[in-house]
Design a protein that fits this description.
The complex is a heterodimer of chains A (263) and B (235).
Chain A lengths: L2 H14 L2 H20 L3 H30 L1 H8 L5 H30 L8 H28 L3 H29 L6 H9 L2 H10 L9 H12 L1 H28 L3
Helix pairs in contact in A: 1-5, 2-3, 2-5, 3-5, 3-6, 3-7, 3-9, 5-6, 6-7, 6-9, 6-11, 8-10, 9-11, 10-11
Chain B lengths: L1 E10 L2 E11 L4 E5 L6 H8 L7 E6 L2 E2 L10 E4 L11 H11 L9 H5 L15 H14 L4 E5 L7 H16 L3 E5 L3 H7 L2 E6 L2 E6 L1 H8 L4 H12 L1
Chain lengths: 263, 235
Amino acid sequence: MDGTAKILKFELQDVLRSKWMILYALFFLLLTEGLFRFGGNQSKVILSLMNIVLIIIPLVSIVFGTMYLYHSREFIELLLSQPIERKKIFWGVYSGLAIPLSAGFVLGVSIPSLMYGIHTSQEAGMMGMLIVAGVFLTFIFVALSFSISIRYEDRLKGLGLSILLWFFFAIMYDGIVLILIYTFGDYPLEKAMIGVSLLNPIDIARTLLLLQFDISALMGYTGAVFHKFFAGWTGMIISVVFLMLWVGIPLFSGQRIFNRKDF
Amino acid sequence: MIRIVGLEKSFKKLEVLKGVHFEIKPGTITAIIGPNGSGKSTIIKTILGLVKPDKGEIFVKEQKLNGGSSYKKAIGYMPQSARFPENLKLDELIGMIKDLRHNPADCDEELFTQFELEKEFLKPVRTLSGGTRQKVNAYIAFMFNPDILILDEPTAGLDPISSSFLKDKILQEKENGKTIILTSHIMSELEELSEKIVFLLDGKICFEGSADLLRINTGEDKLERSIAQIMKGHA
């Protein structure tokens, strides 16, 4: 077995027993169950779930990722003194965190959904998209957390930056976009807005999901342009490519620093 | 066995090593000593590839280190302290390290028995005391019969019985032809174990030789006093 796979195996043993991990899965389980029980029709349930997923997954992934890496520092030192390449340690630790976090979310959401018969309903595709988007966001924000916590020795600084980055993408970014629209309202901004939304992973996920619902009509001309772009195959492929870039770029920059880092 | 040539390293603006040269011959015990912050751990970590040098070269078994990791097969390392993954049990941790070294058949289990780690085997690592963790570190370092043993303050935190077990083990491995590098602040230990002392001060080597030579050079008959005298002379 390859070094990465060995480290992954033991990371899984460790992370899956963490009480935070179990709480995280339980949170999604209870949330989904509650929404189905009290939330009315299924498409409304998915919409509410989406609003929570888009905030919670990035927050938990980036905070948990940062703390976990700081916490495993001495263990990584122990691994580094063994005959394994640094690269393999990095990938082992990353996948050992991103995979169980994704699994917690997927299981937590899908068990109640299946119990309420989502797989036989019209909304199955929408729920599928939501789960894929959630998994992407987990991989992206764990990657971002790694590229931060490897760069900064100071735990407080690293954690602060992580939370700031989450705040920027989850909350501030939309405000900035609104200011842009307000300021340059006299110009045709629709196409530029598509570009702007591709620069924020949470926005990509949100747009992809929202356009599955028939509410884009409420968003006027911009909504129509967005709908034309994101609902078509090209738009879909471009969004997925951008989501992958959002996983890849922080990961590879993190791995490069990890290779040169002093422990 | 290990040759260090012109090693320099600074962390941001702090110069830790300012051109260190020395050679360690096979089958010897070398102690690196010096005040806190003099760069002992940094030297050890550069040999292990945990810290990348700014300048200089390190040769382990005549092979120049260049970022590869296979030379670490010949090294057993006991760090100063270690935190292990919280939720793993000791047997899983040991299993993992063995697995990473491809499960060799002839593991050295002597320290495992002497330290009575059997009792702790099924406990989660986070519940182990500091001393027990040190025992685990020692056991892991000796486990794979490495040609080179690097021990960073090996007996710190161990009770007298375990400490003497470990010292016996170190001497025994030396008899078996192993090359051993250790750091320590405990004078009796240095007198007992080391054949050669490398004295590090302000990122440079200010003395290299046997403990007897150090005593003769400084005209003191206690090792501790000789060391103190060198440090005062520098200040």
